[in-house]
């Protein structure tokens, strides 16, 4: 069934990341105003209609027929996550309720889009991640599931989590707390556990696990501070903290606290270099280990 333009909702998202949320690491080269990003996305969509007529119907319905970024995200997610158990119309309504209710929801989506455009060298316009990037879709889908979780609608929250895992290969528990400006690159194989907390401006590459280290209950997952880079295949296990501006190297297994502004590597991970405080590994995406200390 085609999705009709949605009605607004008065419900509220409760994304509890206040304890870790801080200002952006740096000013970006693009406007952070939702209206400006939406206008640029629409302009890119209009250009794409001419570039690829075969895709024109999808672009028209997904972006140009929508009245704002929240509605466009809800429509796109509904088409990708809706299935036989929960039809697209119902999924669209859930997504829109989550996105429109919270005054910060648009800001989260804008910063997530900008994070990709700033950090991914293959990304030259907002249109590409909006339509195609699994990491962005998984993250915005998580935000819907997180809202449902805090509304006490745990069954639906877990359904959305399951669909994100099935469709995008990225498993994020609805109770996890994730800030904005987070870049999940590729997304395949990423696992984020229930009591994980991720601050703003973090970059996460494929096959990263933020998990527990056994069968213990309670607060058992990592706390990732602002500006951290988690490289390909990194595993951070247990209720441990990865300090601000740190870098976890590819395939590292982290079992202990990571000091701020350091690089850790190895199995088990150990500090292999210090990072100058003015360097921003989550933004530079530089996965070099350093020369050792």
TrEMBL record:
Which EC class heads this enzyme's classification? transferase
Residue span, Serine acetyltransferase N-terminal domain = 37-141
Please report the organism this UniProt entry assigns to the protein.
Methylobacterium currus
Spell out the protein name for this chain. Answer: Serine acetyltransferase
Q: Which GO terms describe its molecular function?
A: serine O-acetyltransferase activity
Q: Which UniProt keywords apply?
A: Acyltransferase, Amino-acid biosynthesis, Transferase
- Sorted alphabetically, which SUPFAM superfamilies does this protein's record hold? Trimeric LpxA-like enzymes
NCBIfam families associated with the record: cysE (TIGR01172), EPS_EpsC (NF041874)
Family to which the UniProt record says this protein belongs = Belongs to the transferase hexapeptide repeat family.
